[in-house]
Design brief:
This protein is mainly beta and about 290 residues long. The protein contains three helices and 15 strands. The chain has one domain. The protein has a seven-stranded antiparallel β-sheet. A six-stranded antiparallel β-sheet has the order 3-4-5-15-14-13, with no helix packed on it.
């Protein structure tokens, strides 16, 4: 929310033939500016994107806002917005066995600050009421949200065709999704496990995540990097539905690679917050640092 700060007052001085009058008044410093992106219905509430610029005009956060009322009655089944594929070739797409079991919303970031957030462009928001099936690790089989902040456009993502490999991905696209990211651009401790999905890309997992340990900890939140054809294509906080509780206010580090393929601002933290005055939750990328391409 805007933080209204005041700077030292400015002074106006009127000079007369026999009198000099000084009048000083405090002026409010420029506060954060919130830019609203796309909004869509979700459950009993709404989901939307936003970008916050700080008082100096620098990028402060790129995020998704969720109505708190949504969590009073989260959807229990997909709503037909997720991709499908006729796996068995019978001419039909079975909603239970041949579709992603999720609810999906494609949300553009605000155009007013497009140049400030590049290379980030849009968010693919998914809710998985039954979690992820194999080949995802079993610990991710509980209800959770995927917040894909893409570094490529929506049309590019849609070209990652659905099919019979991986998570409903075309087999040629599956191989392209698994092309290794060059070491310099690969965040440390992340691994490729074949978790490539149609209309998404590959999902690189944090090998040291507590829920992937032995024994595994309870899954609450984690951070995933996406890739396709050897390029990092999305940043993804993946958050358990149970983690969204009133009072949550938590930030976590985002792993940093040794180099960046595309110049621009990149986050060093991701945060999950409850905003009681707005009756909403936010999931955001924050603490941006400009990186040069190398």
């Amino acid at each position: 929310m805007p933080d209204h700060r005041f700077t030292t007052g400015t002074c106006a001085v009127a000079l007369g033939a026999a009198l000099a009058l000084a009048a000083c008044s405090p002026q409010p410093a420029a506060g954060p500016v919130l830019h609203q992106g796309d909004t869509a219905d979700f459950g009993t509430g709404e989901v939307s994107t936003y970008v916050e610029m700080d008082g100096a005009g620098e990028l402060a956060s790129v995020g998704v806002r969720l109505s708190a009322s949504t969590f009073d009655a989260l959807p229990v089944e997909p709503d037909g917005t997720a991709p499908c594929f006729d796996v068995n070739g019978d001419g039909q797409e079975d909603g239970k066995t041949e579709c992603f079991m999720m609810l999906r919303r494609d949300l553009e970031l605000p155009e007013t600050v497009a140049s400030d957030v590049e290379p980030f462009g849009y968010v693919q928001f998914n809710y998985n009421p039954h979690g992820h099936p194999p080949p995802a690790p079993p610990v991710y089989a509980e209800p959770h949200f995927d917040f894909h902040f893409y570094l490529v456009g929506l049309e590019d993502v849609r070209k990652i065709r659905t099919g019979t490999c991986g998570f409903f991905i075309d087999c040629d696209a599956f191989e392209r999704a698994r092309v290794p990211v060059p070491d310099a651009y690969m965040p440390p401790a992340y691994i490729e496990v074949g978790a490539a999905a149609g209309e998404e890309g590959n999902h690189l997992l944090l090998s040291t995540a507590p829920e992937l340990g032995d024994p595994p900890a309870q899954f609450t939140q984690t951070f995933i990097f996406g890739s396709y054809d050897g390029h990092i294509t999305f940043y993804e906080p993946m958050i358990a539905a149970s983690f969204f509780t009133p009072g949550v206010d938590a930030c976590y580090d985002v792993a940093q690679p040794a180099a960046w393929e595309v110049a621009g601002p990149y986050p060093t933290e991701y945060c999950v917050r409850y905003l009681p005055d707005e009756e909403a939750y936010t999931v955001s990328l924050e603490s941006f640092v400009h990186r040069d391409a190398t």
